[in-house]
Structure formats: C-alpha cells, structure tokens
Design brief:
Elements lengths: L1 E5 L5 E6 L2 H13 L3 E7 L3 H14 L3 E7 L8 H13 L7 E6 L1 H13 L5 E6 L2 H7 L4 E6 L2 E8 L4 E5 L8 H18 L1 H9 L4 H29 L14 H10 L6 H18 L5 H13 L10 H8 L5 E2 L2 E9 L2 E8 H11 L8
Parallel strand pairs: 2-9, 3-4, 3-5, 5-6, 6-9
Antiparallel strand pairs: 1-2, 7-8, 10-11, 11-12
Helix pairs in contact: 1-2, 3-4, 5-6, 5-8, 6-7, 6-8, 6-10, 9-10, 9-12, 10-11, 10-13, 12-13
The structure holds glycine.
The site of glycine has 6 residues, from helix 5.
C-alpha cells in the first residue's frame, strides 16, 4: 500500500494498493463527504467493478447511482457528457455530493469534466482502473472531452478530492491495454528519471510479468510514476511551463491517434510520437543516437510500436489541431539524453520538417 500526497491548489491524496475498491466508500467519505454519489463508468469497466464500488459506498452511508456509457474514445464527447449531467440532475445531486470516475483515461477525463461543470463544480474522486490512468491521467486535474476538430479541445482543470488506484484491476486488462500504459511510464523516465529508465530496461514491465508474480514490482513502478507526475504538476498545475514536459511525444502522438481514427490507444501513439521526435532530434544533432536505440528497445520490450505507417503529410495535417499550437508555432518537447528533455517553441514549417525527419525512412539515415 502506498500513499502520495499531491500539494495542488486543493491538496489531495493518492491511495495505491490492492483491495481498495472494497475500501473506497470509506476513503471517499473521509476525503469528500456528501450524501449522494454518481459513479461514472464505461461498458467495459462497469460490469467488472461498479457493483463492488457501489456496495462500498452504500456501506459508508452514501446513496449511490451508476451512469454507464459505451466504452471508447469516440464516446468522450459532448452528448455523453450532457447525458451524465442530466443523470446527475435527475437524481438530485447537490453541491455537497460526489462524482466517482471509475475507469481508464476516457472515463477519468469525462467524469472529471462532469464534476467540474455540475452546479459549477462538485467533489470528484478519481478511481483509475487502467495502467495509463493510474500513472498519468488520474493525477493532475486535467479533464476534457473531444470535439470534431480534435482531442481534448473542451475541458477544465478540476482537482480530485482523492485518487484511489487498486492495482488488482490491472489483472483484467488485455496485454495491449497494459502495454498502452507503459508508453506513459517510459515517457516519465525519459523526461526526468534515468534510474527508472535503467530499471525498466533490466526488467521491462509487461502484462506477462504482472500475472506471473510481478504485482508488487508493478505497484512500485506505478508509485514512482505517480510521484513524478506529482512533482511536475505541483510545480506547474496549469501548464504554464514545466508541465509541458509531460507532453513529450504527444504532438505527434495525438496526430497518430487522429490518423488512426482513435483505434490505437493513447500510450501506444505517444510511444510512436516519442520515437519520431527522438529520431528527428538525433538527425538534427540534438540527441545522441544511443538514446533513440535505448528508447526503441525499451518500448519494443514493453510490446509497443516505434513507428507508424502514416505519411509525414497526413500526420502534419492532423497535428495542426493540437492545443499546444499557438498561432504559427507549437511547443515541442525535445529529448537530449535519457532523463533530460527541453521545451522548444518551433515554427509550424519546422515542425512539418521534424515530422518528416522522424519517419524511419525520413531524412539522412542514422
Ligand atoms: N498527461 C499530461 C498532463 O497531465 O499534463
């Protein structure tokens, strides 16, 4: 069992361990109070875990309801958000009540935004069940839905009152979903923790490793990643500066997601984005070739791809909708070494050239 305290504008605690679904009602009561709770979950996670959480909430004295939406990034949109808000209003939640976002990144983003909007903001408990949501999206207060023009274009910063991550849930992921979370773990190591990177190289985290006795070490890795995320968001809650480092691999990664019509996982696309921007940095002389070799080898060992079949032109067209674009420029995270990256503002023409340089067969061979 680990706890990590996040000193955000409204501080909160992350609880990480096993059998926390069963204990969630009391933890939420202590962190958030209130009388009614709406669990927001999706059609994959709800049938597995909503009943256990609902029972725990009722045992802790809550009146609990579950709003279930169809799983998938394509449902992280205004219609689903409005349906969740109507569901909360029909059950007469008031300002003292609580939303529990139970699921992966899509659920956390959408349930979080529903909590931020309902009656101008009510208490939120994040209960991540995917590896990606545990190590990244449940911590830091970002909430959003997608618009037709792009991913996460409508959202709010809304800090949870508590995060409850039951690592037992990782056992019901598919190997691909587990690998998807590894994309964000490797990202954290690349931006600021070379020791973690070496440890991951020695024993890469995989689903097979998890289910053959590796749960305790995976919990340690998740805890370290939550600490990294905590340190970054504590220094820059609203992404005015250092938090942009967490976008390593994301400008191209979001473009890969859009080109793939959101059929590939976020962490899977971030892995491709990290390799492409690192390849471009190597070709520009900003990063040693060994860094790219180590990054590709580690991501491969985690079961992730290091390149995609979309052309540089297709990726650039999708990347133009990225939030990190500001007029004719975009903020990019450029790797220099394992554990050392910088934020650079790059003109859009140069970004197009970097995407081309990031293709496996682009630019000069390296
Ligand atoms: N996932 C990036 C961030 O939370 O800022």
């Amino acid at each position: 069992m680990h706890t990590v305290d996040v000193p955000a504008s409204t501080p909160y605690r992350v609880h990480l361990g096993t059998r926390l679904l069963e204990a969630s009602g009391q933890i939420i009561r202590e962190a958030a109070g209130g009388e009614k709770v709406v669990i927001v979950t999706d059609s994959n996670v709800g049938p597995l875990y909503a009943g256990i959480v609902e029972q725990s909430l009722v045992a802790a004295g809550y009146e609990a309801f579950t709003f279930t939406f169809p799983a998938g990034e394509e449902h992280k949109r205004a219609e689903t958000l409005l349906a969740a808000l109507e569901f909360m209003a029909e059950r007469e939640l008031d300002r003292r009540d609580v939303v529990v976002a139970l699921g992966g990144g899509v659920t956390g983003d959408m349930g979080g935004l529903a909590a931020a909007l309902y009656m101008r903001g009510i208490a939120l408990a994040q209960m991540p069940t995917s590896l990606l949501a545990m190590v990244d999206s449940s911590v830091g207060g970002k909430t959003a839905i997608d618009l037709a023009a792009g991913k996460n274009l409508a959202g709010a910063f809304w800090q949870p009152r508590v995060v409850i991550a039951d690592v037992g849930c990782l056992g019901t992921l598919t190997p691909e979903q587990f690998a998807d979370g590894c994309g964000e773990i490797v990202k954290h190591a690349m931006i600021c923790d070379p020791e973690l990177f070496c440890a991951l190289e020695l024993t890469p985290p995989t689903y097979d490793y998890l289910v053959s006795g590796g749960m305790a070490r995976i919990e340690e890795i998740v805890a370290r990643n939550i600490e990294i995320k905590r340190d970054v968001v504590a220094a820059d809650e609203r992404e005015g500066g250092a938090r942009k480092l967490l976008n390593f691999g994301h400008s191209i990664g979001h473009a890969v997601e859009a080109c793939a019509a959101y059929r590939l996982g976020h962490g899977t696309c971030v892995a491709i984005g990290m390799c492409m921007i690192t390849r471009a940095a190597v070709r520009a002389g900003a990063c040693a070739p060994e860094v790219l070799a180590r990054l590709e080898a580690l991501l491969g060992a985690c079961g992730l791809e290091t390149a995609c079949s979309f052309s540089a032109e297709e990726l650039y067209a999708c990347a133009l909708h990225d939030k990190k674009r500001r007029g004719g420029a975009i903020d990019l995270v450029i790797p220099h070494a394992v554990g050392a990256c910088s934020i650079e503002t790059v003109a859009l023409e140069d970004f197009a050239a970097l995407i081309a340089q990031g293709e496996k067969n682009g630019g000069n061979a390296c």
